Fold these 3 entries.
Entry 1:
Amino acid sequence: MKRLLITGAAGGLGKVSRKGLQGLAETIRLSDVVPIADAEAGMEVVTCDLADEAAVMALVEGCDGILHLGGVATEQPFPAILRGNLIGVHNLYEAARAHGVGRIFLASSNHVIGYYEQTEHLSGNAPHKPDGWYGISKSYAEAVALMYWHKFGIETAMVRIGSCFPEPVDHRMLASWLAPEDYLALVRRVFKAPRLGCPVIWGMSDNDARWWDNAHVDYLGWRPKRNSAEFAEKIAATVPRPDKDAPAARWQGGNFTAEPVKKEK
């Protein structure tokens, strides 16, 4: 690629991407709604509100790939979700269409399927069961990606990220954990694979404990190397196991399923 755009570049996963993806494109353009003062040398920085259609159109110009991490990342009142995750996704895909961007890594979420029991094993085509407005917004984003794939040929990796942290910190994360190095390897494969299409990809490492099946995307050649099992004894010894009926123990979406519908103050 000549220019890769990373939205949400000021966030936690954005910072991991900035440090770990250097060399993936000749130029990396970083963007967020807040100014980025600690950008890596040689990277472009553009402050942009994804809900601003004209600003997003200018942001995407000159890019041939997009790593879309931007938007609201937690359960919030609907107006905030609307601006960042619905209007923002619409603006991004329209800009991608207008400027001929061919491939997008879309950070979707496990909260698209949050109301499945942890005893269930899911393929990429399991019906959506979102656990809140945040999950609904990611379900919407996947629908947008599919429409732009079928109508305009824009390829998207719809990556339902589990829990991307240096290590899992509770029992639920033994199934949902995505090691940062496995995440970075996935981003590289998404943009280097000869063929992508518009698949759902479960964002998890090669965990012994798992709810999700990525067999349908074996063609990408992504092989995660880490396994949450290396932390299982530590978690068993230091983290109390929740009651079997607690949201964190019952639902794949964990505590998001118990979040109240938030209202603007």
Entry 2:
Amino acid sequence: MLAPSPTKELDGILLVDKPTDHTSHDVVARLRGKLKMKRIGHAGTLDPMATGLLIILVGKATSASQYLMSLDKEYEGTVEFGKVTNTQDAEGEIMETRPVPPLTEADVRAAIQGFLGDQYQTPPMFSAVKIDGVPLYKSARKGEEVEREPRFIRVASWDITGFAPPRFDFRLRCTKGTYVRTLAHDLGQKIGCGAHLAGLRRTATEKFSLRDALTMEQIQALSLPEIEQRLIPVRSVVPTVAL
């Protein structure tokens, strides 16, 4: 009797629309089960609360991780004024509530101008950044404050797309490593009433668009050959020098 053929290992880039309440690792774990292979990673973490474009690297495409992580990102989201949380987003504990002044859209646009361009941003305590080998969020859960090194970022654009105080919707383009929730928090501090990130959705990573992404439900419904057809060959989008 002939031995069964080994399961074919796939290679390529799969664009996934990450659901809320899933970590990026949760998505990877589910795909490892679906594709029956371990060599799967991602190029750029999304917080559990955030949804949208997650670039999944399958097989040999994992070698392009550093290049793909370095690409600029685009987001849509919502900022809420008047409430400060310990995580700087809606998942955290409300630490402070302040009255919101009678802000106009012009007031917020003017304040946003100070966040455009090149700058240094201090990572939030509730993040996966490691200090002396320990993720910051572990120290934060113990109530510890750790000194963090500011990181260079660039905010290319930050536009208001909807305004209904105490909230406003926005579209943002920025470099890798930018904490959008920290931008929201810092904006609230600048205006004086505090703020947090109420919602976030990644819509693009340079040439990759959320429009081409599959939901986890759609992926689960596909056969392996159908998923293979949706994989983007890594050499078609990544310079050879980056592989």
Entry 3:
Amino acid sequence: MRILGVIPARYASSRFPGKPLAEIHGKSMIRRVYERAVSSEVFAAVVVATDDPRIYDHVSAFGGEVLMTLPSHESGTERCLEALQKMQAPFDAVVNIQGDEPYIHPEQLQEISAIIERPDVEIATLVKRIHDADTILNPNRVKVVMNDRNEALYFSRSPIPYAREQNIENWLGPHDYYKHIGLYAYKTETLIEIVHMEPGILEQTERLEQLRWLERGKRIVCGFTRHDSFGVDTPDDLQLILREKPE
């Protein structure tokens, strides 16, 4: 199967403008993501999809493949589709790689690629078991519940499932909680389909795009990873990574 790895990278950000170009121990954030994606050795091609010439020039300068895409896209999913359409070769699937996770692990890209290669899977993502109560209660950490086939039933910023009649310190005992790792893979025809879906009430309520796909009846198959994610949303996040992830 030919899989395209796409790294959407916008320059504009209300909380951290220009973050793809932020330096982390001598390399830009976007370069770190790109090099880790390439090192996974699962992609027929890896490309940065950006809307800004500064990012385009930077990626070109370090030898990466990059495409200019429209600034009007409302999501990385839409940007992935435009990148796919601009590539000069056909691909069977696309992996949407977050451009603000400079320490994404190549093994995670291998894990999600193995799932999307299955003929019965349209959309794949990753989850990681939660080991602390603070993460369960944190609305910035998206939780997921699954059925016995590891298909997502729901994603939420709230604690799910809610352990009724138990104290929060006891929640981690009788039930496993899972954090969503924001990495997606789609079959090519599925990516085309979901980009044209209108937002549903669940997505608008939780502000989670993947709920649009569930609400429209799409199956999202979850894979389990032992690696965490370290996303950079603000300058404070960057400082935290600089302290905790020495190069």
